[in-house]
Design a protein that fits this description.
CATH topology of the largest domain: Rossmann fold
Structural class: alpha/beta
Largest sheet: 6 strands, mixed
Shape: globular
Radius of gyration: 18 Å
Strand order of the largest sheet: 6-7-8-3-9-10
Number of helices: 8
CATH superfamily of the largest domain: P-loop containing nucleotide triphosphate hydrolases
Helix content: 25-40%
Low-confidence stretches: 1-22
CATH architecture of the largest domain: 3-Layer(aba) Sandwich
Oligomer: single chain
Strand content: 15-25%
Mean pLDDT: 89
CATH class of the largest domain: Alpha Beta
Order of helices and strands: EEEHEEHEHHHEHEEEHH
Number of strands: 10
Distance between the termini: 49 Å
Length: 271
């Protein structure tokens, strides 16, 4: 199993733009986007869930996948992470085709799914330890990284508590810490702030944005919450399974003549 993942450094904490512990790009990956989705289509029992979806996430960039509930965001994340096999189209991660080279493609990803995937009866530390073992991390390196991520997300004091007793916001922080243990270069988050209070939502979003700016992590942030979009963000607007906009969020406002992303979204999807 360990041979499927990029080699690991002995350094636990993030450092620099792409610090020790992050796999370096090889010649094949150097000029490739972090994620390239091309003509992706999928159906459930004859109902079209995604229709010819195309977009990319730039290396080190923050991309917002915005759409109402039922737009197809979770289906898209499921296809990109290999939970479903697409009926049409392709997914490439740093140039590695998910269908032909799934181990390399998946090894570059960290994922926070919409539904909680932590073991509620394990402690925070035990959940992280289990995830690290699945990625073949040496015990000493795993301990170092666990400590670094728990400290970064300000949950070190809850490390030995069972996940069951944690609030929704703390559980999300644990899931983000877990997703970063193996030092992925692409982080996918599906509705990570749903059901959380405003201050917790803002703190989690700010933390993930900082990963892009400080660590060079590429992010696809899927949400239906329009206040999480900034005008400078790369925005992919998904509506009824199809891409209704792909470009800077500010340009969508300009194109629709609307002052806010929420107003521009409504104008674009109701046209």
């Amino acid at each position: 199993m360990t041979g499927a993942f990029p080699s690991e450094s002995a350094t636990g904490a993030f450092s620099g733009k792409v610090g020790p512990g992050f796999p370096s790009e090889n010649a094949t990956e150097k000029n490739e986007p972090a994620l390239a989705v091309a003509h992706l289509s999928h159906s459930f029992s004859g109902r079209r869930a995604l229709d010819d979806v195309c977009f990319s996430v730039g290396s080190g960039g923050f991309t917002v996948l915005l759409g109402l509930n039922g737009a197809g965001k979770t289906t898209l994340i499921s296809l990109v992470t290999g939970l479903y096999h697409a009926h049409g189209g392709s997914v490439r991660v740093f140039g590695h085709a998910l269908r032909e080279d799934p181990l390399r493609a998946l090894a570059a990803m960290g994922v926070v799914f919409q539904q909680l995937t932590l073991d509620l009866d394990l402690t925070v530390r035990e959940n992280l330890r289990y995830h690290a073992s699945l990625h073949g991390l040496a015990k000493s390196l795993a301990r170092e990284r666990q400590a670094a991520e728990l400290d970064r997300l300000e949950i070190s004091d809850r490390a030995d508590e069972r996940v069951r007793v944690l609030s929704g916001g703390l559980r999300r922080r644990v899931e983000i810490a877990r997703a970063l243990l193996h030092r992925p270069r692409l982080l996918l988050l599906d509705e990570p702030t749903v059901g959380l209070d405003l201050s917790t939502r803002r703190a989690i979003l700010a933390h993930v944005r900082k990963l892009c700016g400080d660590e060079g992590v590429s992010v696809l942030w899927a949400t239906h919450l329009m206040d999480e979009v900034e005008t400078g963000d790369h925005l992919v607007l998904l509506h009824r399974g199809a891409v209704a906009w792909d470009g800077p969020a500010g340009d969508l406002c300009a194109a629709t003549g609307r002052p806010t992303v929420a107003d521009a979204f409504m104008a674009r999807t109701q046209a």
